Structures are given as structure tokens and as C-alpha cells.
């Protein structure tokens, strides 16, 4: 549980840093998700990695829900971990990992 919480907190911190100040260098630890380039890609990738590594049973237990249905667990995890702006992308990443689908980063928007 602590490991999932630490990964989730680190993910939120990475997302916050990326969305507010742009890419930065790291000190001491390599963060592979920064080069993804956008909030949507980072949210998806962090959730995909976390949910894929932890597994549906562990995530369900950590967010304290009694079910192990992929959509329900992913939604609960995302609500507990990600901002509203990142939630949809993170939910899709987590669901993809739970369902065993290959990662498919969201496309960047064509205009801002």
C-alpha cells in the first residue's frame, strides 16, 4: 500500500511540475515520464504504469473499495490521485493496464 501511495504521490508531483513550469531536470532519480510532453500523456503514462505494476487487486485494496471491476477501480484510483484536468486521461491509462491492453498515449491537441 505504501509503495502505491508513494508512486501515486510522485506521479501527482510530476504532473504538477510539468503542467505549471514545463520540463525540468531531475536530481538523483531518473523520471522517464517527463518527456511525454503534455499533461494528458503524463497522466495516462503514470496511471498506466502504476495500475499495471500494482495490479487491480492491490489498487482496489489501496483505494478501499470492495470490488475489482476495472472501470470502478480505475475511477476510484483516479479520483483519489489526479486533478480534474488529468482525470480522464489517467482513467483511460489505468483501465488499459488493468485490461492488459498495450499503452496508447493520447494524441496531443492540434491547437491551444
Please tell me the overall pLDDT.
78
| Proportion of strand residues | under 5%
Number of DSSP helical runs = 5
- The quaternary structure here is single chain
Span of the ends, CA to CA = 38 Å
The radius of gyration computed from the alpha-carbon positions, rounded to a whole number of angstroms, is: 13 Å
- What's the count of strands? 0
Largest beta-sheet details: none
> Please, how many domains?
1
Q: Give me the strand/helix succession.
A: HHHHH
Low-confidence stretches: 17-33
Structural class: mainly alpha
Shape: globular
* Percent helix: 55-70%
Summarize this structure as a short list of keywords or feature phrases:
mainly alpha, 5 helices
Description:
The protein has about 110 residues and is mostly helical. It has one domain. The protein is about 65% helix and about 0% strand. The chain has helices at about 1-20, 40-55, 55-60, 70-80, 85-100. Helix 1 runs antiparallel to helix 2 (about 40-55). It starts with a helix and ends in a 13-residue tail after the last helix. Mean pLDDT is about 80; it is low at about 15-35.
